[in-house]
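Why do we care about 3D structure at all? Because function follows from shape, and shape follows, mostly, from sequence. That is the central idea of this module. The next example makes it concrete: a single protein chain, its amino acid sequence, and then its structure expressed as C-alpha cells.
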Amino acid sequence: MAQLLLVAHAPLASALGEVAAHAFPTCAAQLDVLDVPAEWSLELAIERLQAKMSVVGPVLVLVDVLGATPANAALACAALRQETLVVHGVNVPMLWRTLCYAHEPLDTLAGRAVEGAARGVGIAQASC
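And the structure:
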C-alpha cells in the first residue's frame, strides 16, 4: 500500500487534509500532510519531508505548484528513494481520486491523481 503525502504552502496542505477527512474519513487516515510556511528554507522543508517519508514502500506525494519550495523539497526527497512519485497541481478532485486507492500500484495511483485533477477543472454553466 502506498503512503499518501500532501505537501503545500501553509495552510493549504492542512486544509486539503481536513477536506479529505470530511469526505472520506476512513481513507483519509492514511494521508499525511506537511504545510510549508513561507519562512522555511528548502533545506528545512527537505528535512521535515524526509522525516515523514520514513515508511518503507511506495510513496505518492501530491504538491501544490511545480517550482516552489514544497515541490522542490518533494522532488529532492524522491530523488533519494525508490518508489516515490511526485504529482503537482493538487486540488480536491485529485485528492479524492487517490484517497481510497492507495492499494493500487504507484504508477496507477499517480495516473488516477492526474486524471482526477484534470476532470475536476472546467467551466460550469449556471442554469435558472
